[in-house]
Design a protein that fits this description.
Number of domains: 1
CATH topology: Serine Threonine Protein Phosphatase 5, Tetratricopeptide repeat
CATH class: Mainly Alpha
Strand order of the largest sheet: 1-2
Order of helices and strands: HHHHHHHHHHHHHHEEHEHHEEEHHHHEEH
Number of helices: 22
Structural class: mainly alpha
Mean pLDDT: 93
Helix content: 40-55%
Strand content: 5-15%
CATH architecture: Alpha Horseshoe
Number of strands: 8
Oligomer: single chain
Low-confidence stretches: 1-27
Shape: globular
Largest sheet: 2 strands, antiparallel
């Protein structure tokens, strides 16, 4: 990564500030931004742009997570009350939370991309360099809007196209309208930004030591996701095929991952064994060999609690994803001794998990699209390329028909991409033409109020198919700050 210059720090602060504060100091900003190198240095602040804000929905709101009644009885503070509101799909208390790190973090990226785009024509530098930077900015904006629309808006479906999408920020002007565009306009804007980035790039592969910079293969990888979610399976397959031609982004054989530093405990004695990936800091995991484009989901609490239904999908003795990432008794990391609790830990002591686009995801996108088109042999071939790098003793997936193939591929997807992708997948399953993949999530927990968890009041919660709660509530502070322009979701 390039050294962070003084201007980079200034621009970072601008990205974190309000648009109004930016516009109140235009002369100073224009004086500081003079060269394309300065804007490029901002993009190369990889740790800032490669990480999503703490995504409480992805961490707590799906069937990948299970917080048992026994855990909360024994350790009432093991999971904070604010996080439990996401676990039971609360609306009012999520709206009234003090902040929403995901919403704020992704709109900061959008704003920063707009700072870059609005200044590129006025700085010195070659046109080739400017086009390269502009492609990065367009893709940063597109990817952030993608994350936002797949959380705070209804799922992509013909019946939802006129429902509220996102406020589409295109400038740094704080007077720009914040009213929510339609869902159709939001998806159109995302695709437009991606295509704009694609046309500005030369024909190039992923740069191994700059995986946070967009490339044509990264765009192909993202488009395989975009078209899978929007139901265009032909384009998904073609985009995936293009992405898989990369000679830089390659599957990592998990059998080659070494053991990491174990953690030992007393009273009672226990040793937790982690993979070396658990020890990796950003100077390693930003360059993970499977990334087309570095993006990570961040968990400030460092504890992903894998559900029984998720764990049951693995062969514990043969699947390296279980052996490396699912830690029996991993709750000891948080002083939870009994009842023993599992923990899912990927990078950096459980802080980060890949959010793609990766080679693994692209293979799964392709396999699913092929299966949904009835291309049985091709779908199994795609998913088995992944399994060859994930199992101690490789066994190929087989299926008698497309329906069975779809079911097994979706199970493989859940094994490979827990937490980071499951929320978005549950949403899209609910609106496609296949009712067999619909997911109803049920919690047997306790009554929760702003005062706390009522341990004497068991309660069952359910997230039904096509629930209005598929749209995450927008934080009330952001609604108020928009002075009525941003419309809350209906529940």
């Amino acid at each position: 990564m390039k050294k962070i210059t003084k201007l980079t720090l200034i621009l970072t602060l601008i990205a974190l500030a309000s648009c109004k504060e930016y516009l109140e100091k235009p002369n100073k900003l224009q004086a500081d931004i003079q060269t394309a190198d300065q804007l490029e240095a901002l993009i190369n602040n990889a740790t800032l742009f490669s990480t999503e804000g703490s995504n409480l929905t992805a961490i707590y709101s799906t069937d990948d997570t299970e917080i048992s009644q026994d855990l909360i009885r024994a350790y009432p503070t093991a999971v904070s009350l604010s996080n439990l509101f996401y676990y039971v799909w609360d609306v009012e208390n999520v709206i009234n939370a003090g902040f929403d790190d995901l919403w704020t973090g992704e709109f900061k990226k959008v704003f920063t991309a707009n700072v870059i785009l609005s200044n590129l024509d006025n700085v010195s530098g070659t046109q080739i360099q400017k086009d390269r930077i502009k492609a990065d900015a367009y893709f940063i904006r597109a990817l952030s809007n993608w994350i936002l629309v797949n959380h705070y808006c209804k799922p992509y479906a013909p019946s939802n196209m006129e429902s509220p999408g996102l406020p589409l920020k295109k400038t740094t002007d704080y007077t720009e309208n914040l009213s929510r565009a339609t869902l159709k306009a939001t998806y159109d804007a995302i695709l437009s930004d991606v295509i704009a980035a694609q046309t500005l790039l030369p024909s190039e592969d992923v740069v191994a030591n700059q995986r946070w910079r967009v490339s044509r293969r990264a765009i192909d990888a993202f488009l395989s996701r975009f078209y899978l979610f929007t139901g265009d399976y032909d384009k998904c397959i073609q985009s995936a095929t293009n992405a898989l031609s990369s000679t830089t982004a390659q599957l990592v054989d998990l059998n080659t991952i070494a053991s990491g530093t174990p953690a030992s405990y007393t009273n009672p004695a226990a040793t937790l064994n982690y993979s070396v990936l658990n020890d990796w800091a950003p100077n390693r995991f930003l360059y993970w060999g499977e990334f087309y484009y570095t993006r990570l989901s961040y968990n400030i609490n460092q504890w992903y609690i894998p559900s029984q239904s998720l764990r049951d999908l693995y062969d514990p003795s043969n699947d390296m994803r279980y052996r490396l990432f699912i830690i029996p008794n991993g709750g000891r990391r948080f002083s939870v001794i009994s009842p023993a609790q599992f923990r899912y830990s990927y990078f950096n002591d459980g802080k980060y998990i890949p959010a793609g686009p990766t080679v693994a995801e692209v293979l799964l996108n392709k396999a699913e699209a092929q299966a949904r088109k009835g291309e049985l042999a091709e779908a199994l071939s795609s998913v088995n390329l992944l399994r060859q790098k994930r199992l101690r003793s490789y066994t190929a997936l087989t299926a008698a028909n497309s329906e069975e193939a779809i079911s097994k591929i979706l199970q493989e997807r859940r094994r490979e991409l827990p937490f980071a992708f499951r929320w978005m997948d549950i949403r899209r399953f609910s609106v496609n033409q296949d009712p067999s993949d619909d997911v109803i999530v049920t919690r047997n927990f306790f009554k929760i109020t702003p005062a706390g968890v009522e341990l004497t009041s068991p309660q069952t919660y359910s997230l039904p198919v096509n629930s209005l709660r598929y749209s995450v509530p927008i934080n009330g502070i952001d609604i108020a700050a928009s002075q009525g322009q941003i419309q809350q979701n209906n529940y």
